[in-house]
Amino acid sequence: MSDFQQTATGDLPGIVVTGASGRMGQMLIRLILDSDQARLVGALERPGHAWIGRDLGEAMGGAACGVPVSDDAVAVIAQAQAVIDFTAPAATVAFAELTAQARAVHVIGTTGLEPADLARLAAAARHAPIIRAGNMSLGVNLLVGLTRKVAAALGEDWDIEVVEAHHRMKVDAPSGTALMLGEAAAEGRGAQLADLRTPAREGITGARTAGSIGFSAIRGGDIVGEHDVIFAGTGERLILRHVATDRAIFARGAIRAALWGQDKGPGEYDMADVLGLS
Ligand SMILES: NC(=O)C1=CN([C@@H]2O[C@H](COP(=O)(O)OP(=O)(O)OC[C@H]3O[C@@H](n4cnc5c(N)ncnc54)[C@H](OP(=O)(O)O)[C@@H]3O)[C@@H](O)[C@H]2O)C=CC1
Ligand SMILES: O=C(O)C1=N[C@H](C(=O)O)C[C@H](O)C1
């Protein structure tokens, strides 16, 4: 039986994990319980979920850890210094408003957010820090900087394509990471991604528009997350690649962000801020 006992003692930042039963939720819970820098103070799931009211450790198949799974977001978030949230857009927007009311740090990994969701996050960030990134790993955040530099160095005769692969359960495309990489490539060219992005291709598409940025998504099996930025020139190709093999890289980044945010004022931040890459 797994031991889900809390390692931390004393007055450390208290973290609440939303979407506790999810792939990222469970990874975060294991790492926070093992951490000597933070405490797990709550676990949230949506109303009606089979885990509600159960001890979190037992629900995860191990020994009791003393943290119940709850659907009472207001009461649980009131206990938090940070909320780490890898759920779904509608849930994340609602959690942002509650987390801002509690003046806690909101770390958001959720992808697939629409402009209206982002506007609500911006409003919440007027009251407390929000740290959001489509990918919380060190490697991808370094790749973002490399992509910006390579795009700036190469002319428009180098076509840019972002190719991503994820597990069969992923619901959004292109991935949040692919969009981060596309935005960096566009910035490198002194433009906005919205002006260069090519819609998904199918049928008689015509030739490629010069200077555009294309996206392709593969879904299958248990692929954790793979991203290529392809710079296709004439007679040569340059490919920047990141391969994730373990979700712990995202969870470690999110916990680091939650701790980094403890002395920050209201506002919107990203992982480049957390990692000192800005
Ligand atoms: N930024 C990053 O580094 C990363 C981002 N992600 C993103 O994180 C998100 C989650 O990914 P993943 O863990 O794989 O997905 P899962 O589907 O495994 O987990 C999402 C969890 O959130 C729960 N949830 C949904 N709505 C609510 C709600 N209202 N209240 C509480 N819990 C809720 C779901 O419950 P139920 O199943 O019952 O609906 C589920 O347990 C995705 O958007 C993904 O793209 C993932 C990895 C890294
Ligand atoms: O859904 C996932 O799994 C992942 N989502 C993020 C994304 O959309 O880029 C990050 C990572 O690739 C895993």
From TrEMBL:
Positions that bind NADP(+): 46
Amino-acid positions noted as binding NAD(+) in the UniProt annotation, renumbered to this chain: 19-24, 45, 109-111, 133-136
Residue ranges of coiled coil: none
Enzyme class per UniProt: oxidoreductase
Keywords: Amino-acid biosynthesis, Cytoplasm, Diaminopimelate biosynthesis, Lysine biosynthesis, NAD, NADP, Oxidoreductase
Reaction(s) catalysed (UniProt annotation): (S)-2,3,4,5-tetrahydrodipicolinate + NADP(+) + H2O = (2S,4S)-4-hydroxy-2,3,4,5-tetrahydrodipicolinate + NADPH + H(+); (S)-2,3,4,5-tetrahydrodipicolinate + NAD(+) + H2O = (2S,4S)-4-hydroxy-2,3,4,5-tetrahydrodipicolinate + NADH + H(+)
Cellular location(s): Cytoplasm
Pathway stated in the Swiss-Prot or TrEMBL entry: Amino-acid biosynthesis; L-lysine biosynthesis via DAP pathway; (S)-tetrahydrodipicolinate from L-aspartate: step 4/4
Catalytic site: 166 (proton donor/acceptor), 170 (proton donor)
Domain Dihydrodipicolinate reductase C-terminal: 139-275
Domain Dihydrodipicolinate reductase N-terminal: 15-136
Entry-linked InterPro entries: DapB_C, DapB_N, DapB_N_CS, DHDPR_bac
Keyword Oxidoreductase appears in the UniProt entry: yes
Enzyme Commission no: 1.17.1.8
Transmembrane segments: none
PROSITE patterns given in the database record: DAPB
Pfam families: DapB_C, DapB_N
MF-aspect GO terms: 4-hydroxy-tetrahydrodipicolinate reductase
Record: residues binding (S)-2,3,4,5-tetrahydrodipicolinate: 167, 176-177
Family label: Belongs to the DapB family.
Subunit organization: Homotetramer.
Function: Catalyzes the conversion of 4-hydroxy-tetrahydrodipicolinate (HTPA) to tetrahydrodipicolinate.
Protein's name in the database: 4-hydroxy-tetrahydrodipicolinate reductase
Species per Swiss-Prot/TrEMBL record: Paracoccus marinaquae
